[in-house]
């Protein structure tokens, strides 16, 4: 742990300037690594997800039925949503490899959705396709300004995600792709958080030492970056459309 700064001589005996101490002990941040889901963006509301997927199957659901169906699908397991209450044995292998191979990711989540009898042909695939679309996600309102501030300050940005599909088109659709220097996706690099190797890979792609990087996420897997030598900020995920507290990143990463 870094040594704490001594109080200045102008401070009364025994006084402790916490802000000055934090500034003195903070290591410079040259790069910020961001988790994707729950940190930069959130999946759309479950009912909207079901309504949109059903429409692509040629079915118009009333909101009551859509809500009930969404609840059942969330229990079964949704990509970008809560973990399934139970993974059927037939899907166990796909589930274990979902963030390493695109076919496993698709097979696991369409298989889980198919365990819910919705009475709509093709719904499981339509629900998954919605997850692959930028329209199925909502970037947090503080994502863009945080990226812009880091870019202006010359701080590099990487997105580090345990995921089984390409999210680059999302950032392009949201006008954020020009502010991301690297994407480190588990299915492309063959490593999943909290494995230190995925964080080292991100730092290597950015050309910075891990000790000069800040990892920002919302889970214990993201906090695993500590083992790689990174500083870590964990922010609880917010609901779609609500700020996610990303301003705290600027407090830590940018000079006072």
TrEMBL record:
Residues 1-21 are annotated as: Disordered. One of its GO terms (molecular function) is hydrolase activity. Transmembrane segments: none annotated. Keywords: Hydrolase. This is HAD family hydrolase.
């Amino acid at each position: 742990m870094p040594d704490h700064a001594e109080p200045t001589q102008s401070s009364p005996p025994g006084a402790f300037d916490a802000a000055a101490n934090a500034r003195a002990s903070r290591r410079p941040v040259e790069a910020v690594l961001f988790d994707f889901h729950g940190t930069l963006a959130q999946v759309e509301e479950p009912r909207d997800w079901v309504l949109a997927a059903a429409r692509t199957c040629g079915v118009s659901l009333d909101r009551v039925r859509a809500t009930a169906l969404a609840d059942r699908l969330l229990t079964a397991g949704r990509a970008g949503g809560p973990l399934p209450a139970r993974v059927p044995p037939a899907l166990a292998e796909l589930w274990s490899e979902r963030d390493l191979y695109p076919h496993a990711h698709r097979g696991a989540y369409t298989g889980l959705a198919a365990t819910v009898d919705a009475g709509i042909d093709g719904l499981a695939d339509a629900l998954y396709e919605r997850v692959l679309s930028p329209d199925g996600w909502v970037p947090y309102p503080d994502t863009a300004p945080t990226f812009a501030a880091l870019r202006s300050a010359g701080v590099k940005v990487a997105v580090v995600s345990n995921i089984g599909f390409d999210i680059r088109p999302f950032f392009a659709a949201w006008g954020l792709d020009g502010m991301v220097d690297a994407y480190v996706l588990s299915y492309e690099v063959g490593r999943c958080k909290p494995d230190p190797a995925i964080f080292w890979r991100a730092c290597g792609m950015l050309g910075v030492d891990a000790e000069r990087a800040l990892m920002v996420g919302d889970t214990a897997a993201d906090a695993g970056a500590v083992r790689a030598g990174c500083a870590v900020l964990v922010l609880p995920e917010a609901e779609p459309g609500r700020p996610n507290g990303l301003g705290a990143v600027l407090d830590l990463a940018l000079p006072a």
